[in-house]
Amino acid sequence: xxxxxxxxxxxxxxxxxxxxxxxxxxxxxxxxxxxxxxxxxxxxxxxxxxxxxxxxxxxxxxxxxxxxxxxxxxxxxxxxxxxxxxxxxxxxxxxxxxxxxxxxxxxxxxxxxxxxxxxxxxxxxxxxxxxxxxxxxxxxxxxxxxxxxxxxxxxxxxxxxxxxxxxxxxxxxxxxxxxxxxxxxxxxxxxxxxxxxxxxxxxxxxxxxxxxxxxxxxxxxxxxxxxxxxx
Length: 231
Known about the structure:
- By secondary structure, the protein is an all-alpha fold.
- The chain folds into 2 domains: 1-46, no CATH class; 47-230, no CATH class.
- The chain has 10 helices and no strands.
- It has helices spanning 2-21, 31-46, 48-74, 80-90, 103-134, 136-141, 149-177, 186-200, 202-210, 217-230.
- The longest helix has 32 residues, at 103-134.
- The protein is elongated, with a radius of gyration of 25 Å.
């Protein structure tokens, strides 16, 4: 309802602008082209939730297809829960010992912090996707005017970057599971730790490639701290 009200507002705005253009005060675009464009915008705006849902489903299907290909080639179930099983099998710290400050202990600590970071990152991603779907009608309606069309472009770039994060993370998981790990091999443990770090930086890689919004918890907290300092 609010988006439709804004659409009516754009119609009134164009009507006033077209009326003023007849007096040579301002320039106005062709009214027939504007009406046709507005009809398409209205259709896409009222179907925005359905369109976003289908885009998300396609993205999930591609991600699932990548995992299934990896499952068939590597003969294992590629998922985040199995990542924890791998870390528990290759990074072993005996109970009642002081191995926390050993190599295995340090790697275990770094990996555990990485898990917490990943939980926060992908929780933020889930919430942001919901938010961008909810504001999709308002983003589409900004295409009614050239002066506001940049809002839609920014929305689309952020929305696509959030979806691409899943695909990039899936690709890293497939590569991660293809590496042979051993509890006695330090190199394999370091490779595993590097894979966790790569998963944490997926959003940064996507942002460098196509732009978009950050879901990195460290960057978010750092930005909030700078804002507080500025105040």
